Amino acid sequence: MELIQMFASVVLAYLLGSVPFGLVMARLFDLGDLRKVGSGNIGATNVLRTGNRLAALLTLAGDAGKGAVAVIAARWLAGESAAGFAGLFAMIGHLFPVFLGFRGGKGVATFLGTLLALSFPVGAVSCAVWLVVARIFRISSLSALSAAALAPVCAAVFYHWHLAAIVGVMAILVVGKHSANIRRLLDGTEPRIGS
Fold first, then answer.
1. What burial class does residue 175 get, using C-beta atoms within 10 Å of its C-beta: 0-12 exposed, 13-18 middle, 19+ buried?
2. Which residue among 12, 40, 77, 110 is least packed, with the fewest CB closer than 10 Å?
């Protein structure tokens, strides 16, 4: 029974993670095909490039919320171990959504929402790192990479190795999705927030 609950939690988390809130908001606000705007990404940062702050905020809330809901639902359905795996699979769903031919976003909002639900202190520190780096450097990808790098360390300090391992895998996924951004950061050509 526990194995069935775990499997159900993971499948539901993946499907929830696959919901492309950026595209939903772009359609609701008549912003056109988000994949043909700015970076072509389906996340909140690219929605913001359309000039619609409300749509970007709702995308951020949706993408973060789906990670948090996946964790909370799995925790209720099958326990703490299932919650960690559900968070991971919500991230995988966002990065590789079945509804979009497995071509998704970069997962930063989903990562942060998942962290907040898995361990509030870890999520809060990661969000704070994102905000501070964004405030200083005005580069979204640098903020995301900084938060991802620090999150597994925070998980090990605030929680235990099990969470740190899962958060580490999620952080690697976030970094992997930012490979082009890393090249631009090294070249000095990465765009700044608001440009």
1. middle
2. 40
Give the whole-angstrom CA distance, residue 151 versus residue 102.
Answer: 25
* Distance between CA atoms of residues 64 and 114, nearest Å: 7
Q: Distance (Å, rounded) from C-alpha 190 to C-alpha 17? A: 27
Alpha helix ranges (H) inside 18-139: 21-28, 44-48, 53-78, 80-95, 108-118, 120-137
CA-to-CA distance for 193 and 5, rounded, in angstroms?
42
Among left, alpha and beta (phi > 0; psi -120 to 50; other), residue 19 is beta
169, 125 in Cβ contact below 8 A?
A: no
Encode pLDDT of 77-113 as tens digits.
998 889 999 999 999 999 999 989 999 999 999 999 9
Asked if 72 and 117 touch (Cβ cutoff 8 Å), the reply is: yes
pLDDT in tens, 166-183: 999 999 999 999 999 999
Residue in 143, 153, 130 with CA at minimum distance from that of residue 185: 143
Q: Model pTM?
A: 0.94
43: nearest Cα among 111, 106, 127:
106
